[in-house]
Design a protein that fits this description.
The protein is α/β, with parallel strands linked by helices and 375 residues long. It is built from 13 helices and 16 strands.
């Protein structure tokens, strides 16, 4: 048959995709093992492997020990066959990353460019990305697209940032920036992007709540490989849960929001904003740091325990605070345990494993995910 029905093509494409994903998650797997694990015939596996190798997406990476007969060949993905660009836009800085199919960062650039709605801003950000790509001499044909992370709420189609208190902007259209980058662009909230990076670093099928404790507090509900956004794409705006009625003013205009008690700047005020240095002081027994931590950790424990009650998933502490919290994690766990109705010990709380620039990396991974879906 010259033109097989669409359903056959769909099945072939799905098989190819499953094979690619299996090699992606099981580096060095052999063809017979692929056939066995996916319950596919060897001819089907061989045909699809040939196609994937011709596309330059997988390679033979060595021979495996065999108990007799011919040695089986180990298969690996070609990590640098494609790249995604990630851009994290914050109030004062821009971070650009280049991420490959394995999720590894191959290049990065950072520049102090305060956010602005002026045309010149788009050009400056574009140049940061250009410089990064030039440094690695990346073949433009290998770029699958760019992900742009912002500290704000996005429209349903993602084309507009409807609101960002941090950037002081409303109804910001991404089109000029997308056009300047000259790549297919996807847009994502910064905490959701960080949650995606964490998912790649830890557990692709995982379900957890990611709590982003940086200059603002945000979060993401990661569920089966996606950040769940909710009806209005505000899912995970944990920073604006009220934890103290009538309490400290929040930048959003309300009082008593979690953000006012648990953003990273609360700890950083002792050390000119340096959260790592704060934890050094705390460990050294500094009394001011201990008092600050006591108030901070009690507020955080309220939030963490509430999230555990709602979702019953692991809670991942991320952002600047999560990157440094390791040695104070047991203390946070104990505080959360004291509030827990079901006598849980707090071991459901863990520190993020992806500690550097998770939002810029997660934004790039959105495009890597899209590409892998298309294989
Ligand atoms: Zn608020």
């Amino acid at each position: 048959m010259r033109h097989p029905p669409a359903s056959n093509i769909d099945v072939r494409k799905a098989n190819r995709n499953r094979i690619y994903r299996l090699i992606h998650s099981h580096d060095g797997i052999s063809r017979p093992e692929i056939a066995q694990r996916l319950s596919m015939s060897m001819p089907t596996v061989l045909l699809n492997m040939k196609a994937l190798m011709e596309q330059g997406l997988v390679r033979e990476s060595g021979s495996l020990e065999s108990t007799g007969g011919r040695k089986a060949l180990a298969m690996s993905i070609v990590n640098n066959a494609r790249f995604g660009v990630g851009l994290d836009i914050t109030r004062d800085r821009v971070v650009a990353t280049l991420v490959n199919l394995a999720g590894s960062v191959r290049a990065r650039r950072e520049a102090a460019i305060p956010f602005s709605t002026a045309k010149a801003y788009v050009e400056k950000v574009g140049r940061v990305v250009d410089d990064m790509l030039a440094e690695r001499a990346v073949d433009p044909g290998r770029l699958v697209g760019a992900g742009i992370s912002v500290p704000g709420i996005l429209s349903a189609d993602g084309a507009v940032m409807t609101q960002s208190h941090v950037l002081g902007v409303a109804d910001y259209a991404f089109a000029p920036l997308d056009k300047r980058l000259g790549l297919p662009c996807a847009h994502v909230n910064d905490a959701n992007a960080a949650g995606i990076a964490e998912m790649w670093a830890v557990d692709p099928d995982g379900r957890f709540v990611y709590l982003s404790l940086s200059n603002s507090v945000g979060g993401a509900l990661v569920w089966d490989g996606n950040a769940r956004l909710g009806d209005n794409r505000r899912g995970g705006e944990i920073g604006h849960m009220t934890i103290v009625p009538g309490g400290k003013p929040c930048y959003c205009g309300m009082k008593g929001c979690l953000d006012a008690y648990c953003n990273a700047a609360v700890l950083g005020k002792l050390t000119q904003g340096d959260v790592g240095m704060f934890f050094d002081l705390l460990r050294a027994g500094n009394a001011k740091a201990a008092a600050l931590w006591d108030a901070y950790a009690e507020s955080l424990a309220i939030a963490v325990n509430s999230l555990r009650m709602i979702f019953d998933y692991d809670i991942v502490v991320g952002g600047y605070v999560g990157a440094h919290i390791d040695r104070s994690l047991d203390d946070l766990r104990a505080r959360a345990a004291r509030r827990n109705t079901f006598n849980e010990q707090g071991d459901y709380i863990r520190a993020c494993r992806h500690k550097t620039e998770p939002s810029a990396v997660g934004a790039a991974l959105l495009q890597i995910e899209n590409f892998i879906d298309s294989i």
